[in-house]
Amino acid sequence: MKDLTHTIYRLMACLLLTVSQLSFAATTEQAVTHLLSFIAQSNATFIRNGDQHTSTEAADHLAMKYHKGKRYAKTTDEFIENLASKSSWSGKPYTVILKDGTKIISKKWLTNELAHFRTTEKPQ
User: Fold this and answer.
1) Which tens digits make up the pLDDT trace of 61-77?
2) Is 20 within a domain?
């Protein structure tokens, strides 16, 4: 009976872990989707490997990188760090020129927006 009880507890723990990981994955997806939408709607200019790109082009490029490289972005912070802040080809950081002319590296800009998103949005 004692072995059966331990087995049941282990199964319950595994089930809870699986459910929590699924919830976490959904939250990560929601946050990445938010960041991609934020980028697309920003009307900022993105500098990638010395070339200028529109905000829509940047969002499309990062969505492609995320789709192909999800294994490097298990969390939204990893998405920013590993995919959305620098070129995987050259290693050069992405730069953003905002509508008001402010120049900022994308890592800082996206990290600030993620912090804002986390304090204002509730996961569904």
Assistant:
1) 999 999 999 999 999 99
2) no
Instruction: Tell me whether residue 69 is in a domain.
Output: yes
Identify whether 5 is part of a domain. Answer: no
C-alpha 21/C-alpha 124 separation (Å) is 14
**What is the domain extent for residue 80?**
29-120
Burial degree of 30 (CB within 10 A; 0-12, 13-18, 19+):
middle
What separation in angstroms does the CA of 21 have from each of 17, 45, 74, 118, 119?
6, 36, 11, 18, 21
Q: How confident is the model at residue 11 (pLDDT cuts 50, 70, 90)?
A: very low
Query: With 60 as the cut, is the pLDDT of residue 57 above it?
Result: yes
Instruction: Give domain status of residue 68, yes or no.
Output: yes
Number of independent structural domains in the chain? 1
- In angstroms, the CA 72 to CA 74 distance is 6
> 64: exposed, middle or buried (C-beta count within 10 Å: 0-12, 13-18, 19+)?
exposed
Q: Are 70 and 123 within 8 A, CB to CB?
A: no
